[in-house]
């Protein structure tokens, strides 16, 4: 990341420790070219507020259409960034939704009180520093405009898109491309069902990420450049003889490879899986095109099917896996469209 430093890591905590030990203090010029991008957005001119000031000559630059678009998109970007932070709190750190609701209420109150009081004081001090005399109504108008332009209070206020757990879930579904699970009925009278997360939709969402696609392409090129040598150690199933003998998966054209596995787990019994009253069967898949070493991360493992273990024994794997196998057949015969690869 830094000029003259060859240290590499994919763990944020390790990078943070290295930065604090070796690169403190530092400026933007210490980073490698292309790491940091700076963007200057010109502010729209105020209505001749400083027209009477003769201390400094004010040069107003015309704002381009692209800068204006960036300025208009900024509140939406901040709102989505706040939603992403709340999503991590709720589903990664497992903070209860009611606790987040209470926190946002307190945060809204603090932001409103602090922003109005502090902004009015700052505006008044700046005007006095430049010896500009204005009415209190003008100061109030400026303070109100500055505070009302903050997208955070609008997002968490009562009725806002992030104010309650229900509103946040709706926001996640709309903005974050959530792939909804589909309920399949095994027995309507007994209300036996199972959940299936569509494989093809999940693949399309994953392959819309440029970083993932770049890793897939890099790994594919590395496999083509490496000739099979029995003396080499095996890093993945792609290094085996059976994979390399498969004309479909081992073609020069990029193929999507999936690794499926099944795991049963007990959700309610803390003593283990012996009771089996609420035991669930989960079918998971991993994208085999990623380079070795990335498959053990939980973020690389995706759920496909979730069903009660008792129902799996009753109705059989052929029934529970039917929608998954249909999608795999479509993937094998037709594939999926990846916009980043055209």
Which labels suit this protein?
single chain, 342 residues, alpha+beta, 3 domains, 5-stranded antiparallel sheet, 44% helix
Short description:
By secondary structure, the protein is of the alpha+beta class. Helix content is 44%, strand content 11%.
Verbal overview:
The structure is a single chain. The protein has 342 residues and is of the alpha+beta class. It has 3 domains: 1-38, no CATH class; 66-178, no CATH class; 182-225 and 238-341, no CATH class. It has 12 helices and 5 strands. The protein has helices spanning 12-22, 65-91, 97-129, 136-148, 151-156, 165-175, 199-206, 210-225, 241-244, 309-315, 317-320, 322-333; strands at residues 182-187, 192-196, 258-266, 279-287, 301-308. A 5-stranded antiparallel sheet has the order 1-2-5-4-3. Strand 1 (182-187) and strand 2 (192-196) form a beta hairpin. The longest helix is centred in the N-terminal third of the chain and has 33 residues, at 97-129. The protein is extended. The two termini are 31 Å apart. Mean pLDDT is 81; it is low at 40-64.
Secondary structure layout plus pairing:
Blueprint: H1 12-22, H2 65-91, H3 97-129, H4 136-148, H5 151-156, H6 165-175, E1 182-187, E2 192-196, H7 199-206, H8 210-225, H9 241-244, E3 258-266, E4 279-287, E5 301-308, H10 309-315, H11 317-320, H12 322-333
Antiparallel strand pairs: 1-2, 2-5, 3-4, 4-5
Helix pairs in contact: 2-6, 3-4
CA-based gyration radius: 28 Å
Task: Give the spatial strand order of the biggest sheet.
Answer: 1-2-5-4-3
What ranges have pLDDT less than 50 throughout 5 or more consecutive residues?
40-64
Number of helices: 12
Tell me the fraction of residues in β-strands, as a range.
Answer: 5-15%
Secondary-structure element order, as H and E?
Answer: HHHHHHEEHHHEEEHHH
According to DSSP, the number of beta strands is: 5
Kindly report how far apart the N and C termini lie. Answer: 31 Å
């Amino acid at each position: 990341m830094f000029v003259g430093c060859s240290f590499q890591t994919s763990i944020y905590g390790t990078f943070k420790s290295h930065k604090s030990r070796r690169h403190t203090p530092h400026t933007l010029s210490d980073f490698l070219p292309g790491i940091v991008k700076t963007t200057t957005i010109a502010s729209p001119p105020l209505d001749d507020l400083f027209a009477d000031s003769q201390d400094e000559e004010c040069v107003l630059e015309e704002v381009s259409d692209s800068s204006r678009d960036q300025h208009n998109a900024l509140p939406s970007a901040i709102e989505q960034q706040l939603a992403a932070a709340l999503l991590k709190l709720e589903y990664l750190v497992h903070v209860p939704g009611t606790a987040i609701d209470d926190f946002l209420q307190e945060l809204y109150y603090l932001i409103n009180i602090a922003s109005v009081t502090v902004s009015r004081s700052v505006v008044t001090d700046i005007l006095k520093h430049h010896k500009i005399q204005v009415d209190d109504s003008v100061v109030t108008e400026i303070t109100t405009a500055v505070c009302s332009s903050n997208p955070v209070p609008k997002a968490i206020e009562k009725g806002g898109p992030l104010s309650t757990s229900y509103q946040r879930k709706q926001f996640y579904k709309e903005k974050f491309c959530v792939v909804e699970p589909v309920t399949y009925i095994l027995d309507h009278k007994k209300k036996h069902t199972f959940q299936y997360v569509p494989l093809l939709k999940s693949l399309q969402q994953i392959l819309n990420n440029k970083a993932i696609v770049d890793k897939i392409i890099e790994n594919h090129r590395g496999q083509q450049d490496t000739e099979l040598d029995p003396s080499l150690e095996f890093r993945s199933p792609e290094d085996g003889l059976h994979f390399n003998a498969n004309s479909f998966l081992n073609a020069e054209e990029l193929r999507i490879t999936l690794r499926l596995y099944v795991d049963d787990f007990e959700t309610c019994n803390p003593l283990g899986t012996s009771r089996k009253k609420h035991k669930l069967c989960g079918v998971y898949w991993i994208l085999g095109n990623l380079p070795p070493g990335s498959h053990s991360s939980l973020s690389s493992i995706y759920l496909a099917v979730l069903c009660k273990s008792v129902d799996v024994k009753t109705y059989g794997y052929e029934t529970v896996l039917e929608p998954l196998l249909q999608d795999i057949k479509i993937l094998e015969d037709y594939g999926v469209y990846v916009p980043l690869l055209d």
